[in-house]
């Protein structure tokens, strides 16, 4: 039976994951780093299935950061190849499960043949309604914010909006994530406790969960642990417990 993301079950609507630890997973086995990324792709499939099954509406996966361009060229091109393979092997099933694919980040920096494949996949799944799989590719939170500032500036110059109309709500409409809600739960695997430039604005009130499990080993049981931890927390958004409890009684 699948769960509903209503206030009863208290499931997150949007989960964002920093999929870290592929390299260490491989190193421990004396394998090339790329083998870790290959195993990591299997975890991606598993995580998508988990979310679809449990009624989580949005899953954002940090697949490649703006800083990851600094990695050795062989690793970068290997990751691009894996991304292509992932789309080739998973797209049909993603589509059959009514999942819409989208990306955030600077796709222009990716090789043109990769961009074409991604855009075709986005197009094919654009009408799907049951879940959004959002892949962060060449994504950086700071870059996202700077781009938004530049677009707001342009809109003001063009007379499309007034400076006085620039609020948090209107500003957000210029971020890459404009069409989706902020993440409720942000998970990082691999043991590091940092954001590494992921969804900086959007995570202002996300619940953070750090797992020491390396991404290729992150399975349904680990995912459920993160969900259970999330469900046990009280999100106060600056208020006090009593206010949240009163709100809960009203709804
Ligand atoms: C995360 O795993 C995947 C990407 C950044 C693409 P890493 O490759 O960072 O793995 P570790 O941190 O070296 O173990
Ligand atoms: C963050 O992991 C980026 C992705 C998971 C895509 P990194 O491994 O690049 O982060 P740092 O360098 O350890 O902060
Ligand atoms: Mg890492």
UniProtKB/TrEMBL annotation:
InterPro entries: UPP_synth-like, UPP_synth-like_CS, UPP_synth-like_sf. GO terms for molecular function: ditrans,polycis-polyprenyl diphosphate synthase [(2E,6E)-farnesyl diphosphate specific] activity; magnesium ion binding. Its EC number is 2.5.1.-. Substrate binds at residues 21-25, 33, 37, 65-67, 69, 71, 188, 194-196. Gene3D superfamilies: Decaprenyl diphosphate synthase-like. The active site is at 20, 68 (proton acceptor). CDD domains: Cis_IPPS. GO terms for biological process: polyprenol biosynthetic process. Belongs to the UPP synthase family. HAMAP family: ISPT. Homodimer. This is Isoprenyl transferase. It comes from Desulfomonile tiedjei (strain ATCC 49306 / DSM 6799 / DCB-1).
């Amino acid at each position: 039976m699948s769960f509903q993301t209503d206030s009863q079950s208290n499931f997150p609507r949007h989960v964002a994951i920093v999929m870290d630890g592929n390299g260490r997973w491989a190193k421990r086995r004396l394998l090339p780093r790329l083998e870790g990324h290959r195993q990591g792709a299997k975890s991606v499939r598993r995580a998508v299935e988990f979310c679809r099954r449990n009624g989580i509406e949005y899953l954002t996966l940090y697949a490649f950061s703006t800083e990851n361009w600094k990695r050795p060229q062989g690793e970068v091109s290997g990751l691009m190849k894996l991304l292509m393979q992932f789309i080739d092997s998973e797209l049909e099933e993603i589509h059959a499960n009514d999942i819409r694919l989208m990306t955030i980040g600077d796709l222009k920096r990716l090789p043109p043949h990769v961009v074409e494949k991604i855009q075709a996949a986005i197009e094919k799944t654009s009408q799907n309604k049951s879940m959004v799989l959002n892949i962060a590719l060449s994504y950086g939170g700071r870059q996202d914010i700077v781009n938004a500032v530049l677009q707001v500036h342009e809109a003001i110059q063009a007379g499309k909006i007034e400076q006085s109309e620039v609020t948090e709500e209107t500003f957000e409409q210029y971020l890459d994530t404009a069409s989706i809600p902020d993440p409720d739960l942000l998970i990082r695997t691999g043991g590091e406790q940092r954001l590494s430039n992921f969804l900086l604005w959007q995570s202002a009130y996300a619940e953070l969960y750090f797992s020491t499990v390396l991404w290729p080993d992150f399975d349904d049981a680990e995912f459920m642990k993160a969900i259970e931890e999330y469900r046990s927390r009280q999100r106060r958004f600056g208020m006090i417990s009593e206010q949240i409890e009163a709100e809960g009684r009203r709804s």
